[in-house]
Amino acid sequence: MDKNTIAIHYGYNKDSNMTMAAPIYQSTSYEFESAEQAANRFSLKELGNIYTRLANPTSNLLEERIAALEGGVAAIATASGQSAIFYSLANVAEAGDNILISNKLYGGTVTLTIHTMKRFGITAKIFDVDNPTTLEALIDDKTKAIFFESISNPQITIADIDGIVNIAKKHKILTICDNTVASPALLNPLEHGVDIVVHSTSKYISGQGLALGGVIVERDGLRDFFKDSSRYSHFNEPDASYHGLVYTDLPFPPFSLRVRLNLLRDIGATPAPFNSWLLIQSLETLHIRMKEHSRNALDVAKFLKSHKKVKNVSYPGLESDSQHEKAKKYFPKGHVSGLINFDVEDFDTAKELINKTELFSIVVNIGDSKSLIIHPASTTHQQIATDEQLKAGIRPGMIRLSIGLEDSADLIADLKKALG
Question: Which domains, and CATH codes, for the chain?
Fold first, then answer.
């Protein structure tokens, strides 16, 4: 099936009531037919619902649909994008290990990987996403994952996915790509050899800022990737917390299975069924919305590029943009999401401009149908030291726009008035 059809139909077989919309299974737990069935489900002799912290029929449908859209074999829905990122890394790394992270990441991801995970004994090393060869010198026998964003937020850098994947395969290291900004409607990193894709479904997949959520998607073939790997020995050794279960011995996608049986079970950052239901509805229009976000963004970027008070514009859809060649490679249809950044004179000028806009809402989120504006240096990346901000491409006068679905002429008029 085409992605448009998958987003609307995949995975839902109408129940006895023949409801057109998938039902919300708003339940914490599920009745077993017998004590034997209960025991079989806990021992994985049969699959089925036990408790919503582990699985829920509404969330399961969301997982199946997003996995199909990304071309994956399995997915796990989580309570937020941050929990999806944490689970994906904690599933392979432990105290004493290290992970390699892109130098251009969302501020929350930076603090999670560099500071919070450090308290768990997991070290983050930073590589230059524009030059994947910098990975080689950072890799050692304790390196467990390479993490990057397909389109970075807010720097708007497109990763050299093929270059990163080639080095990862050479060293047999897991790759994890945050595909939030591109969404599965515009790019599927698994098609380029990435192992795991994560999303904050709170962004473009939601589309209206209504529901927090995250998802982890696993490619087919990871069972063979982990099998007999000394780097990922915990997938091949008996899990003492689950009756000696060995993940690579089972006929299920091992990465997702371990997230569900270990991390969802023990940490519990599980999505609410209502949120999963909202996200299922939003998926139905994702492919249409992403085209319109992209078209509007290109119009706005062209205007900003021509304005005398704008020092720099980053939008890969512009032919003059440094990322345009990569955009043509990874986004051949020309749609590259709705995220733009541009620079004005300085820190104070940026904040003043934001306050002057009327249609743009000052909001930290991205991907809404309404256009959003934010000053990263004083908000999303404020907790990062100034010199580290600059290294990460966060400049004092930089403004991030999340272009919505309004008429682009109205958005341009609003920015023109604010710029003066």
Answer: 3-282 (3.40.640.10), 286-419 (3.90.1150.10)
